[in-house]
Specification:
The complex is a heterodimer. By secondary structure, chain A is an alpha/beta fold. Helix content of chain A is about 30%, strand content about 15%. Chain B is an alpha/beta fold. Classes of the chains: A alpha/beta, B alpha/beta. The structure holds iron/sulfur cluster. The site of iron/sulfur cluster has 11 residues of chain B, from loops.
Chain lengths: ~180, ~450
């Protein structure tokens, strides 16, 4: 799985899910249609800058996706066409939501993130877990070995369903 | 080996060890609400034959915008309502509902030693009971409905020791804001917090819930308090708890077996002196950007936060004019919060638009039995039914751009209470005092 394309830079830490998709738009019962309001409450948001049109990679700093558990944040990012988010750290629930939906959460060192802020494009090799810069420089990143499969092949809910009989047996012995 | 309450609960709920640092963890209770549940519930119905693992382990609550404010939110509530009916899931709806993190504990659904999850980040509130309770996304919640489990990384443990007697007008809210201020907004990512020490031991369950509620605001997976006599006494008489004394005695023994052992080890520890705390108010755009009510905005304050909030370094918050006041949310809308606000509002008049929204219909009825609604309304406050309301800027008092709202809620993110809104988070007592003065004010000065 290769992701390559333009970078949308969000030069801030602590972008919470209220800023990614404000609560006033959480009135749907589907997973689609949230992209039009993506990042609209971020002060000075770059989202509508034509320079970043059709960007595939969202680049930000620390603690991205903190706050509300709303999976709508991930749905909105994907709905807008992003395939990956690069950050120096993610909030727990947001990162889990990324895996469960197939949005690639790429965690890099702060120095590496800083270097990427000077780039306009990059390539992400998900299988080999590396980010390639246009200069040829390479940054490695970690992915959860189990949840990586959900990114590559989907099927999180099928996986959970496959555990049902095991859970039933466990419940009998546990009580 | 000595174990903490978290370790005891965790160890007793592991179904399977999975690759990585992952575990399949059994969930005793699932709580569902209308904003984050429908998508997952629909997916299970459409692709998995509607096979819920155990509908009796789920409760559903229409809470975020209840009653609905428009057609879209009416549809959300209807989807949850119809789904609950179809699957025989117990639902709390208009007339009998409230914020999920207020309703679940007040009915007795949360007990020591339990695991609980909900598609809502403030689920850690329930950790006050010595339960391991955490917020998750819609898809993880759907997985839990299918297999009654979550896939979780094992969190690390973090003990927060707070000793001493809180001064007058200092509350659980100030303690947790002090902790978040100290640890920063992301300082506890990957950890489960355990609040302990004499300050916590002397807190009521409601105060402990306020503490645990905001653990997520330091990035923590959850917050917990070891179960004790206060926990057990609170649970006696609750709706879904046995009324049989012998049965209750057995439960009590089971519950207290989850209490933290002496000499338990933690990955990290900090201590805090409860005696010296002051009321806290946030100045910035996350709850970690907080100072004492008589303090000054620090010289290293984040420029972007200051710009959004229209404030300057070195500025005092005390005396800052407010446009609106709000008491409510899963952090501070329980009966004890309303009583504190009433003490300050009694015989006074508010000078800015002020809304008080009880955390549940049960809280509302209790407040009215005590006559608090008269105190509030005599003071010129709008006393509403229960809902999340303006906490998330969806309904019932959305704050205008660049308007300041002194608020008992938990989040001051840009846009949180409405586009461009400027919330200042604090305790219900400071909200009440500031509502009277029209500027940020210490309750002692009223
Ligand atoms: S009161 Fe606010 S923080 Fe609590 S559940 Fe409702 S929206 Fe979330």
């Amino acid at each position: 799985m290769l992701i390559s394309g333009k970078i949308l830079p969000l030069d801030r830490s602590n972008i919470d899910t209220d800023q990614i998709i404000p609560a006033r738009y959480l009135t749907g019962i589907t997973k689609t249609g949230y992209g039009v309001h993506l990042l609209e409450d971020v002060p000075g948001t770059p989202i509508n800058n034509p320079k970043y049109k059709d960007a595939a990679v969202l680049l930000t700093k620390e603690n991205f996706g903190c706050g509300s558990s709303r999976e709508h944040a991930v749905w909105a990012i994907m709905d807008k066409g992003f395939k990956a988010v690069i950050a120096s750290s993610f909030a727990r629930i947001f990162e889990e939501n990324c895996y469960n939906n197939g949005l690639v959460p790429v965690k890099l060192k702060s120095e590496e993130v800083e270097k990427l802020f000077k780039q306009s494009n990059c390539e992400i090799d998900v299988i080999n877990q590396v980010v390639k810069l246009e200069s040829g420089e390479i940054f490695k990143f970690e992915l959860d070995p189990l949840k990586k499969e959900f990114i590559l092949k989907g099927g999180f809910l099928k996986y959970m369903e496959s555990k049902v009989s095991l859970v039933k047996t466990w419940e009998k012995t546990a009580s | 080996m000595a174990k903490s309450v978290f370790e005891k609960v965790w160890d007793s709920h592991i179904v399977e060890e999975l690759p990585g640092n992952n575990y399949l963890v059994f969930m005793d209770q699932i709580v569902a609400h209308e904003i984050t549940t429908p998508q997952g519930a629909i997916e299970i119905d459409e692709k998995f034959g509607g096979n819920l693992y155990a509908s009796e382990r789920i409760i559903a609550i229409n809470d975020h915008v209840s009653p609905a404010k428009d057609t879209a939110t009416a549809i959300q509530a209807k989807v949850l309502r119809d789904w609950a009916k179809k699957h025989n899931v117990k639902i709390f709806d208009i007339g009998n509902n409230g914020i999920c993190h207020v309703v679940a504990p007040e009915r007795g659904y949360v007990q020591p030693g339990m695991t609980l999850c909900c598609g809502d980040s403030h689920t850690g509130t329930n950790g006050a009971f010595g339960a391991f309770a955490l917020g998750i996304g819609t898809t993880a919640q759907a997985g839990a409905m299918l297999a009654q489990c979550l896939i979780l990384n094992k969190p690390k443990t973090f003990k927060i020791q707070i000793d001493g007697k809180l001064p007058l007008y200092v509350y659980a809210k100030d303690v947790i804001l002090a902790i978040i201020g100290k640890m920063t907004f992301r300082g506890a990512t990957g950890y489960v917090l355990e609040y302990s020490g004499s300050t916590i031991e002397s807190m009521s369950m409601e105060e402990r819930m306020t503490m645990c509620n905001m653990s997520i605001e330091a990035g923590a997976t959850s917050g917990m308090v070891s179960p004790d006599k206060t926990t057990v006494d609170y649970l006696w008489g609750k709706e879904v708890i046995t009324k049989d004394k012998n049965e209750f005695e057995k439960l009590k023994n089971k519950w207290t077996s989850f209490a933290t052992d002496k000499d338990s080890k933690y990955d990290k520890e900090i201590t805090l002196d409860g005696n010296s705390l002051k009321p806290k108010v946030t100045w910035g755009t996350n709850p970690g950007e907080v100072i004492d009510i008589d303090g000054e905005i620090p010289s290293d304050a984040d420029e972007k936060s200051l710009e959004y909030m229209g404030l300057k370094k070195g500025q005092k918050l005390y005396g800052l004019p407010m446009d609106q006041a709000f008491i409510g949310s899963c952090t501070n809308s329980r009966i004890s919060d309303l009583r504190e606000a009433a003490k300050i509002l009694k015989g006074k008049k508010v000078s800015i638009p002020t809304i008080i929204t009880p955390g549940s219909q049960a809280v509302k009825r209790q407040a009215e039995r005590e006559g608090l609604h008269d105190i509030f309304q005599d003071a010129g406050v709008l006393w509403t039914h229960s809902s999340c309301g303006p906490c998330l800027g969806m309904s019932m008092g959305v704050v205008a751009p660049e308007s300041r709202c002194i608020s008992s809620t938990n989040r001051n993110f840009p846009g949180r209470m409405g586009t461009g809104s400027r919330p200042h988070l604090t305790s219900p007592a400071v909200v009440a005092a500031s509502a009277i003065a029209g500027v940020i004010t210490h309750p002692k000065d009223i």
